[in-house]
Amino acid sequence: MLRLRPLLIALLFALVAGGVATPVVAAPPAGPRHEVSYDHHSMMVDGRRILLWTGEFHYFRLPSPDLWRDVLEKVKAAGFNGVSLYFHWGYHSPKPGVYDFTGVRDVDRLLRMTEELGLYVVARPGPYINAETTGGGLPAWLKQVPGRARSSDPGYTAAYRDWLGHLDPIIARHQVTRGGSVIAYNVENEYGANVDALYMEQLQQKVRTDGIDVPITHNNCCGGDLANWSSGQGAVQIPGVDDYPQSFDCPNPDTTWGPWGEGITRRLRDDAPVYAAEYQAGAIDLADVGYEKCRQLTGPDYMKVFYKNNVVGSGATMFGYYMAYGGTSWGWLPQPNDVYTSYDYGAAITETRGLTTKYDEFKRQGYFATTVAPLTKTDPTTAPVPADPAVHTVARANPDTGTQFVLVGHTDRASAAEVSTTLDWSTADGRYQVPVRVDGRDAKILVAGYDLGGQRLVWSSSEILTHAPIGGRDVAVLYGRDGEDGSTVLRYSSPPTVRVLEGSVRSSFSAGDLRLDYRHSGLARVSITGGGRPPMLLLLGTDETAAQFWRLDTGDGTILVRGTELARSASVLGGTVRLRADVAESGDVEVFAPDSARRLTIGGAPVRVGRTPSGSLLGKVAGPRAVALPALTDWRHRVEASESSPGFDDSRWTKAERTTTESPIKPKTLPVLYSDDYGFHHGNVWYRGHFTPTGTETSLALNAITGKRGVYLVWVNGRYLGSAAGGVEADAEPVNPDPGPGDFALPPGLVKPGEPATISVLVENMGHNDDWTADDFRFKQPRGLFGASLTGATAPISWRVQGAEGGEDLTDPMRGPLNTGGLYGERAGWHLPDYSDRSWQRTDVPLPPGVSWHRTTFRLDLPTGYDVPVSLRFPAVAQPGQRVLIFLNGWNVGQYLGDLSPQRDYSLPGGLLREHGANTLALAVIDTDGTDGTDGTATTPVVSLVAAGVVRGGVPVR
d(Cα 176, Cα 195) in Å, to the nearest integer? Predict the structure, then answer.
């Protein structure tokens, strides 16, 4: 067993680095200090074993700190005892040496929330995170830093040390060892290609010097040597593995079944726990079929088979499920090749924070994993033999308690057949013939020899949801698929009294064993008293009824709640259960609480309750009333065509004169026109080229690299010549010499010999490539014009470039570097709510190719105490050739891509959305074709507000 002494570790790494550790000034600890340790089986806090069950959450994909609490409460309510958090370097740093940890970037506030909610944190600050976000989390300005990223090269080393030097002190003061929530620290991310062991070693030296004293982890993945970072130079203490058994085959959710193996996490070190660092809990929508297909691909059946197989097959006690909540790649957060605005990911919690059937399955498994303590220490053991070879079994046992865990599933994991058989099971309490049934694509974890509170569970063919001492008795919830037969055996010193309070349950007693037989249907209730043990209430349900329960730990012990959409927290005071919960519809609410509890309030409102034969409180609650959202009308319009006009004054734009670049991909023509080389990293960029024609020019040849789905538009002397699709370089050499080509013919007479001519080009930057290969070829691929020349003449072109106002020196630091690009309307503030659009036209305006803006305001007054996630919906039939930037109160909440993406609904999160007051919606329409109508005008994009759900409850949002 390895124990981490904070001061000793910090000094040790400082000595290895050849220096003395610099003390980190930290805020007072949030609570008592604790010791974190680990061994072969699990992590421990003050010697108590922990099964770490975490879900991934990206704070940067939900720019509303009040809603962070909503998601974190939902994560906890699903049975997770931890959350895994990436920290996005580029999101916090618009330029070298500048960092922002305020507002939507206030990670100190985020970590305080995790502490308040009692969630452990696995901190993952990279420096590289991937996450399908622009640059893989690396700041775009890093493309101009000499030296290979993700290596020990000096330029990169200085840059990442500055990042960690700002972030680590925040993380350090929130460690479990200082009374906080951070229980582990993940260095780097999926570092399996072009590895630099010295880099990994130096990373750890840096974070130790910064005051990090919890165990250091890493997540190995995908083609790299899984032994990396398990031993030798750069080895981490707890190496983990990424597992994505279903791949990302969202178009075929009904037929894809584990193409990447059985999904059992490999043990990488004998002195550390097995860590499933990223286990697939959703999928990227690589085929653009929509995230509901990805949710089906990774739905409850997949979760039952693969998650349970991993628990018993590997003995893992550390889990990170990617993602618990995906969120939104708002602004220019998306990485261009794999994702669009939505990062719903097919996760258990939807982009609009709704709960799904996947959430139900997480709760069933999470409650079990964090309730049954012997799971934290198990070794392989002989599995009971099924009578039917179509059934497969694997078993583990706790060496201290003798508790056995048996995975029961189909031998053919893809089988859709239903099999009923018996297990010849030698338990700690004797040998039994146990009847089991396994449905198609199903798996169960059965438990034997378990001290369930004051009870002795000999064995059960039902699965355990959770149990707790409540009201002077043991209350346990067991479940199985609807219609399945189940049996449970409990041991007593003498025959107990059995009363079936509800449902159909048969009981028999022999040789100290009380056997209960039943069929899972609805919720059966059995009271057991006497027999030499404390009283017990056994609740026997189906998958569906089990998912209706919520477990809440209070200062007066555990309570169980049944019937609400969500249960967030509770307290018991003066005989009243004070419950914070969400209610989606009218119906019964049942609470299992201490005997002293006689009254119930939900959200502060009293609920009339009575006592049931089960000893619970039962009452009825009213559902939410209907909520009407306003229609979007009274639009104002303005065409943005300034930059394409020959007389536009671009004298204040940046001259494009560079002849060298840090990019490993060199331009086709000089000067270098890459937007990053001039400090314009995100969004649209305008170029203006000036030349004096000779009279022999016939066309303009351009190349642009935009990333997937990007386009560029071209004008000469104010005449629109067309558009072309931007290029995407391959991930490895050889370099494509002609990415994103466009040849634009010059109509006769458009340019005249000896008269100055102007080229205007609007180029989209769809985001920066990740650095998956850690060779700079991906990450440092350029954006913007790659080549520009005139065909038929050699007249030189002088270029100027303009992106977001201020470039790296942000004019809007609150919304940050990823919010706006270089459209004229963005630079002039047309997207901001306080901009005056009174001079804009109210009727539809002629819409030439290029950019037009549409603005309206609407008022909301959503009911107080409700949660109503609102989205902006585009029509099902996309408008070809159009893309729309969507600004809500100045915030870029996403980009509608027409027929290039399946997304039609765009989340408007509360906080950005004023739920009580006026809101401004601005749409910047980029049109590659122009008006097609007979009247010469184009209508505003047809959009509407829709509610993704309505519940009484939620969290207050400012």
Answer: 31
pLDDT higher than 60, residue 7: no
Euclidean distance between the first and final Cα of the chain, in Å? 47
Helices 197-209 and 154-172 pack at an angle, to 10 degrees, of 40
Q: How wide is the angle at C-alpha 310 spanned by C-alphas 308 and 311, nearest 5°?
A: 65
Separation of alpha carbons 69 and 909, rounded Å: 13
The alpha carbons of the chain give a radius of gyration, in whole angstroms, of 30
How does 732-751 read in b/e, with b if 16+ C-beta sit within 10 Å? eeeebeebbbbebebeeeeb
Residue with token string 């720019």: 63
Residue 231, pLDDT score: 86
Each residue's pLDDT tens digit, 158-212: 999 999 999 999 999 999 999 999 999 999 999 988 999 999 999 999 999 999 9
Q: Which of 73, 115, 132, 190 is catalytic?
A: 190
pTM of the model: 0.95
CB 89 within 8 A of CB 165: no
Name the active-site residue from 201, 278, 697, 915.
Answer: 278
- Phi and psi (nearest 5°) for 879? -90, 110
CA distances from 551 to 154, 501, 568, 587, 593 (A): 51, 22, 9, 19, 11
Please give the Cα distance from 177 to 26 (Å, whole number).
Answer: 13
Tokens of 68: 């962070």
Helix (H) or strand (E) holding 220: strand 216-220
Q: Please, are residues 446 and 459 in contact by the beta-carbon 8 Å criterion?
A: yes
What would the pLDDT profile of 347-364 be if each residue is shown by its tens digit?
Answer: 999 999 999 999 999 999
* C-alpha closest to that of 872 among 918, 895, 906: 906
> By the 8 A CB rule, do 393 and 406 touch?
yes
Cα atoms in the 13 Å half-sphere on the side-chain side of 467: 23
Catalytic annotation present for 697: no
Residues 92 and 125: beta-carbon distance below 8 Å? no
pLDDT digits (tens, 9 = 90+) for 253-283: 999 999 888 899 999 999 999 999 999 999 9
| Whether residue 278 lies in the annotated active site | yes
Residue 306: DSSP 8-state: I
Per-residue pLDDT tens digits for 637-675? 999 878 999 999 999 999 999 999 999 999 999 999 999
Could you give the CA distance from residue 954 to residue 947 in angstroms, rounded to a whole number?
14
Residue 921 CA to its chain's centroid (Å): 26
